[in-house]
Amino acid sequence: ISETTTPGSRFPLTEAHDPDLGKNSLQSYELSGDEHFSLAIQAGPGGDQRPELVLAKALDREEAAFHELVLRASDGGDPARTGTARIRVTVLDANDNAPVFSQAEYTVRVPEDVPVGSTLVTVSAADPDEGFNGHVRYSFHKISDRESELFYLDSETGEITLKDDLDFEEISSHELQVQVRDGGGLSDTSKVMITVTDVNDNVPELTVSSAVSEISEDAPSGTVVALVHVHDRDSGTSGEVRCSLDGGAPFRLEKSFEDYYRVPELMLERALDREKQSSFELVLTAVDGGDPARSGTVHVHVNVMDLNDNAPVFNKKLYEARVAENLPSGSLVLQVRATDADAGSNGQVSYS
């Protein structure tokens, strides 16, 4: 009998036979064993009694898949004689139960460097129906194009695995709608929240937004040489950057804003002397706070422009020469020489 059978439905039963006659023949039936069923007796055209099984209460296969009944027939003799028959009612399944997820929402946190192919979470649903009605399959109900490239859902097991690399800096969380459907078409939905946690997978980036290629050797201390923008796509301590200046040059590094070294300034720290060093190769290094830390560098080349801050100097303080009194006019008497440490026209000397 199907579990959807309407109460009051009747099912004919096999009649009992008693070869005695009259009072000693079959007189009555009695049913025992289960509240779901009752007994009805129909009178045949010859006065015979025909038993019928009546469904008194709705069936539920998930509650009881079988019902065991006993039908007893009695005659009217003294002493009375009885015969019994066992009735086994099998309840046929109907798709009267929808599958139900074990959780209304599944949450999981995974690092962005989790390997492709890893199982992130497994959803599960139960359906108390049997056979085809109780067989469930899983599918994504609502999912974006990007997320369909990232995640794979096994329709049989409910495992959600990773198909492509995650990127916290691109998307830090994913909300998926998962549906389960049984063989009869009944369904349930659940939400899956996947939170991507940051790992230190980005190198600090330094960009020279403005810089001078030349600086005069008489430039005052505090002159800005370059502005450098520092950016790290990571978050938290992995995105906190410290900057340093390498090279032992007469420059210092200052931060322009309270936000730690977002825009470092290269500034002249002490007086320059082109005659001692005519150019500088400055190396700025940015190190983040990740573990392990990552670093990035940028180079700034600065030439020192000459200033006429050096006088020409003779190679001797006193030049002496001895000449004969009959030396012809135009003869070389001696040669003086002077040098100037400055460059270009500042270092060209003339004599008088």
Automatic annotation (TrEMBL):
Localization annotation: Cell membrane
GO biological process per UniProt: homophilic cell adhesion via plasma membrane adhesion molecules
Any one Gene Ontology cellular component term annotated for this protein: plasma membrane
Broad class of where this protein is predominantly found: membrane
Membrane topology of this protein: Single-pass type I membrane protein
CDD domains in the record: Cadherin_repeat
GO MF term set: calcium ion binding
Keywords: Calcium, Cell adhesion, Cell membrane, Glycoprotein, Membrane, Repeat, Signal, Transmembrane, Transmembrane helix
SUPFAM superfamilies: Cadherin-like
Name of this protein: PCDG1 protein
